[in-house]
Design goal:
This protein has 427 residues and is mainly beta. Helices cover 11% and strands 41% of the residues. The chain folds into three domains: 2-45; 150-234, Beta Barrel (OB fold (Dihydrolipoamide Acetyltransferase, E2P)); 252-425, Protein Transport Mog1p, Chain A, CATH 3.40.1000. The chain is elongated, with a radius of gyration of 27 Å.
Length: 427
Amino acid sequence: MVTISFPLVAPQATIYQVVAINQVTGFQWEGEVDAAGQVTELSSSAGSADVDPINGLPVVGWYGYVLSLPDGSQYDDYLVVLPEGTAEVGLDSTDKVIKAEIEALRDKEGPGRHAHFWGTLICDVPDYNGCQLVVNRLRPDGPGPFFDPDPVVGWEGAIYSGPPGPRSGGDDYFVLVGDFNVEYGIQAAMTSDELTVELESLRDTGTVVRVWGELVAGIPDWNGTQIQVNRIEIVEEPSASVPPPPDWPEPDDGMMTYVNEDYGYQLKVPPSATITEMGVMSFPADELPAGMSADEYLAQLQEQYSDKLCVQIHYGLGYIYIAAPDLDYRYAICGRTGVGAGEMIDKTEEVAIGGQTYTADGFEFISTAPDADDTLAYHDETLYVELVDGTRIVYGAIPRADATYEDYLMKGKGMLLQILASYGPIQ
């Protein structure tokens, strides 16, 4: 919205007062234009996260989950904005469909628990923590709905690095200045190498910048969002309080932390470990819904389950596969598929995972091929364990000809067990 006002004076003496407001992003600019076309900026409130006491704060793609309040509470639910500690605010909507979607998200567990929210945040009102987000649009994690990118016009914030170590969800993020330090993934537009270098140089400097571009939600970046930047400028005087840099813990004993944000777990791995994330690869033919093509249904499944459905960890002589709850090879092959001809000796062992002791079942394989020896190409093991939430883990020795089964037991398996012991919910 643009408002122009001017006094009734001689044309050559007219000075136009201009106010430009973007109701979506919160950007506001005020200035003057004289009769000669000279522009003077008077003030600019560019996309900070301070709440206007009259108009509220536009909310664009905030990411979080919905929790209910106990029976008898004054309010019924609230939004926890991620990462936890960013904000907790009450929720409402004037749209009956959206209200039903919010209720469906209350206390939900597993994939589909998180969602992106759009609307207006109003504070100093009777709702949870004194603030209420009036939602006009939301997007649960899953197959849709799909929205056009949101314009990013002069959003003001700082750029910080994510925690050290391998991670799903981006290596840096943009955090808004102001009352609500909401975090978004950030990346230069595809065509700009110069912007890529500039964004990387600004990481962890504490420099406040304004960015322009588009915000895309529902993609594998920080908080499921990404600002695709096509313009950036340094802010000399920030318009609101600047969030401090993150205090990420240092890796323990040289180990790095891998975080799977889509399925809510983390574990520690050696820096030399190789981690591969996989999504939906196929689906049973009899599952194809009527009226959909195979490509359409595959795209829907890929969106629903993300590209972190199966995680493969290779370290030294061993491997670990972690499959999302109840996957059971339905949409992705997440584990070993064959061993060849030979003897399979049943094997059972106790294994500590996430502070609990599980029984892993599997086999030790010994090939009966004429040229078989004791290398891992002919002698290895595979073990399976299912966690209480349905997550399935497969671990064992990698078949290879340059090491023996004894080498694996002495030099590789101990680290696999250490990795599994570190498995747990995201901290």
